[in-house]
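As described in the Methods, two query proteins were run sequentially through the folding procedure within a single session, without resetting any intermediate state between them. The first query and its resulting structure tokens are shown here.
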Amino acid sequence: MQRDFHFDERTDFMKENEILKIYGTDYKEMTKRLLMEAELEKRIPGKETRIGIKPNLVSPSEASWGATTHPEIVAGIVEYLQERGFSNLLILEGSWVGDKTSESAEVCGYLDLCSQYGIPFVDTQKDSFHARDCKGLKLKLCDQAVDLDFLINVPVLKGHCQTKLTCALKNMKGLIPNQEKRHFHALGLHKPIAHLNAGLHQDFIVVDHICGDLDFEDGGNPVVRNCIMAAADPVLVDAHAADLLYYRPEEIPYIKMAEELGVGSADLSRLQIRLIGEKSTVEDGKRLPESRKVVELKDAVEEVESCSACYGYLIPALAMLKDEGLFEKLHEKISIGQGFRGKEGTLGVGNCTRKFAHSCPGCPPTEQEIYEFLKTYLNGKNA
């Protein structure tokens, strides 16, 4: 059940336990208004500060699809900073394993944005990296991210088929190399996500809550909210995001783990929400639809250390089969993940299951390829 929070309409300096929200459709101007209300410029040490802006460009899909950060939000951040004399800016991100960041940046409008404002785009898939201690866990971090003086994280609030939620904490995963992303999945995602945030600090968060897909991290089922949030505590942001999606923060292990590592607070009883603008008071009272589409589909999967892209393409493919009435014909588990390398089995997805009797090749195979493979398998089996 969603909690009742204290709402505040003051316009003073944003506190650590506050989340600012604004609703509307002029996303660039909404973002600039939020940053003015939060007095972001007072948090930045100086005009020469090296400031990184980290959107979510998980895959080459437009923001309206519900997976990637709206470029208008980032444009609003850039304009706000440049208008106040901050010129040492860059945008940095790395798409998930299986997609090229350059394609995502082009499709999502970020190459045009960078050209318009004269700022560089850093593809962290191509960046150098070094292993660093992240509060007891050694992780490989991209050098460009480590070298920043100030990091503005711009995640999309959306569902995730493995961790239930992705928002501020998990979005930092775009600042590690691809080989470390695979390692994250071998470690079970939650622990390394928490330690990543202990080792790589985000200074400010602007949340894209415009139309995130509440089921799939790769989008396809956007739920329009037309909301943007601003905050300073990523753990509190994710605890609130979990609550909006009808989860308790403790149901998402990396939130509590990050709190225990000192990244922030998940105590929702301390949360103060400040609504900006008259429209926000009305809109914020509307509840999100409660969707658990992924839960039923996940029951058909046996997953061991699978990568986000592979798993993220499998679940929507199963949804397509369900829409056609074929999902109910599936009586065996679909194996997926690095844990099946070298093993034999019946039905698998991805190159890690290449020794299975029936395996869909690819690293990762696309959603359409998985769908066609499973459809052929089911039709042949039930012929």
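Immediately afterward, the second query was submitted; its sequence and tokens are:
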Amino acid sequence: MTKLSTVEILGAGPAGLYTAILLRRMMPQLRIRVTEQNPEGSTFGFGVVFSDQALEFLKADDPETHDLVAPHMERWQNMTLNLPDGSVTLDGVGFTAIGRLNLIQILTERARALDIPIRFDTQITEVEELEADLVIGADGLNSLVRRAFEESFAPKMDYFDNHFAWFGAQIPFDTLTQTFIETEHGPMNAHHYRFTPDRSTFIVECEAATYRKAGFGDMTEEEGAERCAALFSDVLKGTELITNKSMWRQFPRLWCENWVAGKYALLGDAVHTAHFSIGSGTRLALEDAIALGQALATEPDLETALASYQDHRQPIARKIVNAANTSAEWYDSFGQKMQLSPVDFAFDYLMRSGRMTEKRLRKIAPQFAADYAAKRTMAD
């Protein structure tokens, strides 16, 4: 076990809170403190989505937290693609989802039950203010810790071409659904799924040309929500969209060559991002926390523990991030693919990240695989 007395964690999102919880369980002698710049109960976005098996790792490493989170998850076994020429059901493509704020509240209560102090609404301007044996940057894309040691962490960041806005919907959807539509401005897409019995996430995405022609960049949040609700009125059944920091933006592609610098370590969105199209961002952050906790709990000193964390975790995360990047690039030209038949489009969609094979597809989604094979046979 690493010889540590004090740990400061910057960021009280899922990554920071879960790291604190794990360290308290694994190394109960530690003095741990979490600091968050935003007020308690303040967060962006709506729901977060996981693959249907994604919480199994949480159950194995921390059954108590798993049992607190699991009852609040929405679950479904199929996925739906809506296209102008028809809809396709992808059987067996299961996911789960939970409200982001709800997840943070559960983790906050769990941390407090373990006597971990959390300072909300506290702005840290210099990392030197955090005096501890170990400082963990779980402070997201704009990480203060990463920026303070940028040369050491060696981040690389650019942005995908598409623009998106993250809204909420006032109706539930039966499955995780992608709705692709043609508009007077160009093709658009909505990723939508329920995260409570009566609320859903509704992410609207479009290519750069469509974004410019529609004038989304000149609209307020409310104007953008009204316009998107009108464009997707069929699937929204005439209901309005909800805003919560729902500005139009481009998704950042971040990867740090180094995850540690001296007594400082990064995890979650502070060190890498994963495009929302594969639903792995929050899972990656939680798995980073597990890897860091295990390294600290098993290695004899801090330098060795942090090196072990990077050596073991980085290659695993790289594979998922690469798949997410490939998936995001598929979306950058989804309008061209809408010319395909719904079944061909669905097959292309399933293959987009490079992780799916036809053999695996037959196992995961046997009905869709059979329908696709039958279509190819008829074409031959």
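The chain has a mean pLDDT of 93. We note this only descriptively and draw no conclusion about the first query from it.
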